[in-house]
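Hi support team,

I submitted a single chain yesterday and got back a structure, but I'm not sure I'm reading the token output correctly. Could someone confirm the output below corresponds to the sequence I sent? I've pasted both exactly as they appear in my results page.

Thanks,
R.
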Amino acid sequence: MTVTSTPTSSQFTERLTLHYDPGLKRNRFNQIANAIAATFSAVAVIPLFLVLIYVLIQGGRLLSLQLLTELPPAPGLEGGGIGNAIIGTIVVTLIASLIAIPVGVGGGVYLSEYAQNGWFSQFVRFGNDILAGVPSIISGVFIYSLIVATRVFFDQSFSAMAGGIALSVLMLPTVIKTTYEGLMLVPQEMRMGAYGVGASRFVTITQITLPAAFTPIATGVVLGIARAAGETAPLIFTALFSPFWPEGLFNPIATMSVLIFNFAIMPYEAQNELAWAASFVLVIMILGANLLARWISSASRS
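Hi R., thanks for writing in. Yes, this is the structure output for that exact sequence:
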């Protein structure tokens, strides 16, 4: 008769030690998987750093007060700056924000507070997701056909107003999505408590839920503005370009993205350098907007 020995407690503890053993098969596999994941992450981040470094080298050296305050020179001439394009970018982005933020926040409030499970709300969510993936040039063509070609604004065609409306279409999905998700994170107990003391739905939304969801909403708004400020295709079809200072909301206006597009393909070194300088300023603006969004998000968690 064969007698099997039962392992003692000391043998069991020795075999299943809690200390990390790099020689185990699962630990070696885990190290390999971590190395592969780290490599892929580095490959994904390297292009970002290369773009930033190259733009910094090519455009940062041209940064000066003259660059930020003067008009661009005529083709073939040197000097000048991108002052009109900076102002135009701010104006067009401001118009887009004034349109997209109220509409987007209102849409997010409707989806979160009024119609969470209805067929219409599901249709709106699906349409919003589709709109977020539509190429920006489609927005430009749409506004061109709707506003520019029809000359609905005082018989004017290309204008800063048309450019702002085109950019607002691109901002809407981001603002609606972040507003909806931010409001959904607000605990239901806060709403029930407000209703319990006699507050109406309107008062509950404006005084309780919206302030509680301010951080994600503000983050989404800043990200939407950053995306709108860097778009080119919609502005080519709507705002066009102007080599002069802005002459009103219903006239063509210069923007940095379109200036970069126009000057980068010119056969003149002075215009090519201005394109690099505008690229640097635009990247800094977008980078600053993204850092602001991250700061708002981190400030809420601290």
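A quick pointer for reading it: Residues 56 and 265 are 20 Å apart (CA to CA). Let us know if anything else looks off.

Best,
Support desk
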